[in-house]
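Dear colleagues,

As part of the handover before I leave the project, I'm documenting each prediction I ran so the next person doesn't have to rerun anything. This entry is a single chain, and its sequence is reproduced below.
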Amino acid sequence: ASRKFSESNRNASMAALSFGGRVVVIDSGAVAGGLFLLVLRARHMVTLGHPMSRIKAELESYKNTLKISFTTASVKVLQNANKLVCKPPAEGEPKNSRPIFHIENGSIGVTDFTEDDRATAMALLSALEDPRRARRSPSHVVVHYANRTRTVEYLLYRLRELYPTATVYERPITLSIQLNLGHDILGVI
């Protein structure tokens, strides 16, 4: 996981020292689905027989193409944990709204607030758009959720409609991620 999210990266780097260079630790700049996609890419390169140096270089490049957006019921958990680099307006979060977060360079920022299921799904999708990609479709998309809600169903429907050739992975979020990012999380990577 990103160094900015947890101590796991630092601990892994310290442990790797005892393996005499045979273990390489990469700061993913991500959690959960971002890690899943990096491992998927690494595993594919290993099966093709690429050397560790090439795999490391590829993963360093690939992690910069990952787009991560998510929402929770509130910004409070992340505010209290001091995890936000971009905080909501001084008056606090709007009532009856869900925050839309993005993860960039291992840091979490609030980009917007939405008020209903469809608006939330569309905001999560729009946060994934990268103007430099020239509408190139992703090959893999991960949807993480704590509970399978109408918003999740609509998001999956829209993803499959927008990116018909992409492999869409559905993954319930782990309890540890819920504790760190919020209990009602929905994320797209």
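The first strand starts at residue 68 and ends at 71. DSSP finds seven helices and seven strands in the chain.

All the best with the project,
I.
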